[in-house]
Amino acid sequence: MSEVTSKHDEIKALCKALTSAQESENKSELEDVLNKLCQVRVDEKLLRATGAGQVVGKLRNHEDSNIAVLAKKVVHKWKKDVVAANSRAAGASSTGAKSASGSQTPQPSTGQSTQSQQQQKPKQNTEKKLSQQASASSRPDSNSASSPTSGAATPASNRSGMKSSAVKPPLTRSENNGSSNALAAVSGDSADTASIAPRTAASDMASLPQTGDSTRDKCIEILYNSMASDSNADSETLAKRAAGIEQIEFNKAGSLSNAYRVRIRSLCLNLKDKNNPDLRRNIVEGDISVERFCLMTSEEMASKELREDIERIKEENLFKAKGATRVEAETGQFKCGRCKSRKCTYYQMQTRSADEPMTTFVTCTNCDNRWKFS
What we know:
The structure is a single chain. The termini are far apart. This protein has a four-stranded antiparallel β-sheet, with no helix packed on it. The chain has helices at 3-23, 27-38, 44-50, 52-57, 65-104, 110-137, 150-161, 173-187, 201-204, 214-228, 235-253, 258-271, 277-285, 290-295, 298-301, 304-320; strands at residues 329-331, 344-349, 359-364, 370-373. The longest helix is centred in the N-terminal third of the chain and has 40 residues, at 65-104. The chain contains 16 helices and four strands. It is mainly α.
């Protein structure tokens, strides 16, 4: 068994033990597993294959401060490992390119080098004179625009006074996205660094299924982007999930109606909610099928915290709601014996046996006098 395979199995086993300890709320075991994971050296490919970044990343907000600190320590250490591994890979590739280019260039002999140096001396003197003229023409008191030698001096000054290797070209979009996705693979989300860009179908160069309709194809792309923002899954799985969701919604609507667009928009908003990473992960990993997801209501798609808040609000409203009370009616058929007013309310209750008439309770709204009769 190779070292990479054994390390992959080790990380998978530790992640499984971490999940079990979290479910059983065994804090001592959580700390032990996190310490073991901190000692494992990883790279981007290994993290994407095992999904360890997401498992450990969730524990950074754990209610126990010790576990949260340990999880942050593991994530911080893994980020350093990923950056170091990428730097080594980039250095190896550049060294290989230099050696390849150097092997293709023949080395001149001693006699040839001496002869070429003698031939280059007059050229160097000429270039030196041209560079001096160019520097003189670039002064404020000189009229370089009208000088006939300024055009010829420019390439000489470029050759003698400027080194092209001193200016480093900016990172391309693909290189920037590569380093960003590497850090996202460690932490499991893109909230740690402001410069980390979310994954998209364009950055992944994903091959999305084509339906022949531009609107439907755009909906598939938007669904892909909503699921891929902080996911470590491969682009093929994400494209399959996005196409499945779109197909079900299109079959339900029957056409590109307004209801179809509204439903797709609602699903995308719920999928890319930063406070609801569990929904994205469950959809991508298949814990929630696309058929089940398309039947879920907005309340069912809500995050665990939001669902708990909704239940708490419901219980509070139920507790604060007015309980069942007797129904009182206003009438003018009774006359108060104290103030002689006929503004009264009354209600009836069965206070005796069932075959007896009900008892009527009357209250005067003017003086609050109360009486009853059967």
